[in-house]
Amino acid sequence: MKTFRSHLKEKLKDRQFKELYTEERQLAELSLNILSARERIGLSQAEVARKAQVTQQQVSKIEQGVNCNMVTFLKICNALGIKVELDMKPARHAA
Q1: DSSP helix/strand/coil, 11
Q2: Among 65, 77, 72, 73, which residue's Cα sits nearest to residue 26?
Q3: Alpha-helical runs (H) found in the chain
Q4: Domain range annotation of the chain
Q5: Fold adopted by 17-80
Q6: Separation CA 59–CA 63 (nearest Å)
Q7: Long-range contacts at 79-86 (CB < 8 A, ≥ 24 apart)
Q8: What is the pLDDT tens value at each position of the chain, 95 positions in all?
């Protein structure tokens, strides 16, 4: 029986799978960072939503890793005091 890690290692050899996996992993990391920041400062989703002028459902979706628009993402980050920096260097696999 294959372990999860060995199965994943095999699947990551496929370029398309690797790209999708990387995107999902990045989205999950962003979601967890937002959730952690909210919990660290002791705010509820509703409180963040009020500060960000978005709905509680939008905060929940971002924390669950559901795709959102950039404006909503930035509003929530600003409400939590998260500084967003973008690294515009080409990825290693870019042409």
Answers
A1: helix
A2: 65
A3: 4-11, 15-41, 45-52, 56-63, 70-80
A4: 17-80
A5: 434 Repressor (Amino-terminal Domain) (1.10.260)
A6: 6
A7: 79/48, 79/51, 79/52, 80/34, 80/37, 80/38, 80/41, 80/43, 80/48, 81/37, 81/41, 82/33, 82/34, 82/37
A8: 789 889 888 888 889 999 999 989 988 999 999 999 999 999 999 999 999 999 999 999 999 998 788 999 999 999 999 998 888 787 676 55
